[in-house]
């Protein structure tokens, strides 16, 4: 079947998507600069799917290397674009890094396909909604001023894609606005692999449970939520990976909504930070040490998605619940403890 370029293919979501693409009969080709991932993930993927995927190490911000790569791979039928800097807090501290990495990589890919048709799935985010007025938030909700440079890069990237698709019918684009990916593959061979101190909640939870971290800081306990902690729509990374395969399939058969479309990818359920901690304790049997800290700059209070459009038009629905998310993340952390990858 078709060859699909997966940028950021050794990363957290990218690696799981590579596995699901292979299962669906596609041939994934990976590009990653390894700035936030490990080359050893290729071996882990091979253990799951039985073959080592084709891999190229370079930075998509290098226009010459992008053009050279695309020129040597004329049979690529689709792109799933993950490669981007993605930590909200870091983006507040270093906005130029985010604007440089996230825009140049996208624009270079689009420029390379100006003259030939391409199916393009973009890794977007629910951060484009800001603090939603109505919950659950659907795709028709207004895009609000971003609360972080990271969120702003997703908003502007969507605008770039929409305007580019409008101007050139060669581009066939779906932007997936996803919520909070967590969990790991059922094999416990791939999962979230943060460099240094995790920016996301669940790796911090699992690293605390295994003894790498002393305690978890819950950023804010005075939000307007039932227990005072922020609420998110957590989605299992395997479900999220399958949504990207569904998006490629929809683009291949022709999206009746035209050559630019957006979909929410979540479970439609909101869990507070404290509920997530307690769900992990239940799934793992581990008691967690946590404390409350000040609110974190750039964070929103609560968000979860209306996923009806994805169910009806993308033909995709999340299958795995909070228990599977937490249990799989714990199995991955235990695997890492015995088999260090970085």
UniProtKB/TrEMBL annotation:
Write down the Gene3D superfamilies for this protein, in alphabetical order: NAD(P)-binding Rossmann-like Domain (3.40.50.720), UDP-galactose 4-epimerase, domain 1 (3.90.25.10)
Q: Which InterPro entries match?
A: Epimerase_deHydtase, NAD(P)-bd_dom_sf, UDP_G4E
Which pathway does it serve? Answer: Carbohydrate metabolism; galactose metabolism
Q: Which coenzymes or cofactors are required?
A: NAD(+)
Q: What class of enzyme is it?
A: isomerase
Q: What Pfam families does its record include?
A: Epimerase (PF01370)
**What does the sequence similarity comment in the record state about its family?**
Belongs to the NAD(P)-dependent epimerase/dehydratase family.
Q: What is its EC number?
A: 5.1.3.2
Which Gene Ontology MF annotations are present? UDP-glucose 4-epimerase activity
Q: Which UniProt keywords apply?
A: Carbohydrate metabolism, Galactose metabolism, Isomerase, NAD
Q: Which residues form the NAD-dependent epimerase/dehydratase domain?
A: 4-266
Q: What is the lineage of its organism?
A: Bacteria, Pseudomonadati, Bacteroidota, Sphingobacteriia, Sphingobacteriales
List the catalysed reactions.
UDP-alpha-D-glucose = UDP-alpha-D-galactose
The protein depicted here goes by the name UDP-glucose 4-epimerase
Q: Which domain of life is it from?
A: Bacteria
How does the annotation summarize its subunit structure?
Homodimer.
């Amino acid at each position: 079947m078709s060859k699909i370029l997966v940028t950021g293919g050794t990363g957290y979501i990218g690696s799981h998507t590579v596995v699901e693409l292979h299962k669906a009969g596609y041939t994934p080709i990976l590009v990653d600069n390894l700035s936030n991932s490990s080359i050893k993930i290729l071996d882990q993927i091979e253990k799951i799917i039985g073959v080592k995927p084709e891999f190229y190490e370079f930075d998509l911000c290098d226009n010459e290397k992008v053009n050279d790569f695309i020129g040597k791979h004329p049979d690529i039928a689709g792109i799933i674009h993950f490669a981007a800097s993605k930590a909200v807090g870091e983006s507040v501290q270093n906005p130029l890094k985010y604007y440089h990495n996230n825009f140049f990589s996208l624009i270079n890919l689009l420029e390379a396909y100006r003259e030939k048709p391409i199916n393009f799935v973009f890794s977007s985010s629910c951060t484009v909604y800001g603090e939603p007025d109505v919950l659950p938030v659907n795709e028709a909700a207004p895009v609000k001023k971003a609360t972080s440079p990271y969120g702003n890069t997703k908003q502007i990237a969507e605008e770039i894609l929409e305007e580019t698709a409008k101007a050139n019918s060669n581009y066939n684009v779906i932007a997936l606005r996803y919520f909070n990916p967590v969990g790991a593959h059922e094999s416990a061979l791939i999962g979230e692999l943060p460099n240094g101190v995790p920016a996301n909640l669940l790796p911090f939870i699992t690293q605390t449970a295994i003894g790498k971290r002393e305690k978890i800081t819950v950023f804010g306990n005075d939000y307007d939520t039932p227990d005072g902690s922020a609420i998110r729509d957590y989605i299992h990374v395997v479900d999220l990976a399958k949504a990207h395969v569904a998006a490629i399939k929809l683009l291949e058969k022709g999206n009746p909504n035209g050559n630019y479309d957006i979909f929410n990818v979540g479970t439609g359920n909101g869990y507070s930070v404290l509920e997530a901690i307690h769900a992990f304790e239940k799934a793992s049997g581990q008691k967690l040490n946590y404390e409350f800290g000040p609110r974190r700059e750039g964070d929103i209070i609560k968000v979860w998605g209306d996923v009806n459009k994805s169910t009806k038009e993308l033909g995709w629905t999340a299958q795995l619940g909070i228990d599977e998310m937490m249990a799989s993340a714990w199995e991955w952390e235990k695997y890492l403890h015995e088999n260090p990858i970085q």
